[in-house]
TrEMBL record:
Protein name per the record: 4-hydroxy-tetrahydrodipicolinate synthase
Similarity remark: Belongs to the DapA family.
Catalytic activity: L-aspartate 4-semialdehyde + pyruvate = (2S,4S)-4-hydroxy-2,3,4,5-tetrahydrodipicolinate + H2O + H(+)
PANTHER family assigned to the protein according to its UniProt record, in alphabetical order: 4-HYDROXY-2-OXOGLUTARATE ALDOLASE, MITOCHONDRIAL, DIHYDRODIPICOLINATE SYNTHASE
Taxonomic placement: Bacteria, Bacillati, Bacillota, Bacilli, Bacillales
Gene3D superfamilies in alphabetical order: Aldolase class I (3.20.20.70)
Pathway per the UniProt entry: Amino-acid biosynthesis; L-lysine biosynthesis via DAP pathway; (S)-tetrahydrodipicolinate from L-aspartate: step 3/4
Species of the source: Alkalicoccobacillus porphyridii
Biological process according to GO: diaminopimelate biosynthetic process; lysine biosynthetic process via diaminopimelate
Length: 296
């Protein structure tokens, strides 16, 4: 299933009391829609899901569904390392009217490939919604093998993969052998153009909070055969993409949004805000991108 080219993995705005800020969430969603997002993921890693309570996740899901009002798909992050908890959250998210769910590989448990298969299968069977899998071995300490993904792709509503392994060979194999209609998205901003070149659908992005329209321009150039222009935009955006991961995600992107006059508040412990020096370096990296000639 195609959710568009750029899916933004959205941060969760907090107020001065470190509570979910509903009004700021609505403003952020409007910014993302205006800034090139074809879909959003809410309650995912970038949304600080490990520190959100179930009630807070449901609040974010409902706020997004109500605010978007059908304009773009809302993908709810309902995966965890507990199959039972993931099933329950997926059922609740389904009732709230989200358009799809994203299921991260179980972290900490380190299940076998058969365990991964049974985990995702059990969750997918509880909803009629499209399911996007999320392979991120750097965080989960387990990788979903291509063979396992292909088995899962035979389940009718498992329709997509967010692949954050940085393994383009594995992505190419998956794209080559996946059933028709199954889409593969990069989970790394810097691989947006490379994954398109091997047949991927696009990116689940953090950087699109800041320069989503520029990323859309890069993708459009590529799709229209303007390869040199697309590559040039990629090279210009790359320092910014890297800078947004110079500290644990989503610390830098929340700081960048503040610089962009989009208020999303701070992060929750155990994450810490950027230091003054880190903010200075981030601003120095992003400013040339904001003022580049290709920016619309």
């Amino acid at each position: 299933m195609n959710f568009g080219k750029i899916i933004t993995a959205m941060v969760t705005p907090f107020n001065e009391f470190n509570q979910v800020d509903v009004e700021a969430t609505k403003r952020l969603i409007e910014h993302l829609i205006d800034n090139g997002s074809d879909a959003i993921v809410v309650g995912g890693t970038t949304g600080e899901s490990p520190t959100l309570t179930t009630d807070e996740k449901l609040l974010v899901f409902k706020t997004a569904v109500d605010c978007v009002n059908g304009r773009i798909p809302v993908i709810a992050g309902t995966g965890s390392n507990s199959t039972k908890a993931s099933i329950e959250l997926t059922e609740q998210a389904t009732k709230l009217g989200v358009d799809a769910v994203m299921l991260v590989a179980p972290y900490y448990n380190r299940p076998s490939q058969e365990g991964l298969y049974q985990h995702f299968k059990a969750i997918a069977e509880t909803t009629a919604l499209p399911v996007m899998l999320y392979n991120v071995p750097g965080r989960s300490s387990v990788s979903i093998d291509v063979e396992t993904t292909l088995r899962l792709a035979d389940i009718p509503n498992i329709v997509s993969m967010k692949e954050a392994s940085e393994d383009l060979d594995a992505m190419a194999l998956l794209i080559e052998h996946a059933p028709k209609g199954f889409t593969v998205y990069s989970g790394d901003d810097s691989l947006t153009l490379p994954i398109l070149s091997i047949g991927g659908a696009g990116v689940v992005s953090v950087a699109s909070h800041i320069f989503g329209n520029e990323m859309q321009q890069m993708i459009s150039s590529f799709e229209h055969g303007q390869i040199k222009e697309a590559a040039s935009i990629h090279r210009q955006l790359l320092p910014g993409m890297k800078a947004l991961f110079a500290a644990p995600n989503p610390v830098p992107v929340k700081a960048a949004l503040e610089m962009y006059q989009i208020r999303t508040g701070s992060v929750r412990l155990p994450l810490l805000p950027l230091t003054g020096e880190q903010e200075k370096v981030l601003r120095q990296t992003l400013e040339p991108i904001w003022t580049a000639t290709y920016v619309s």
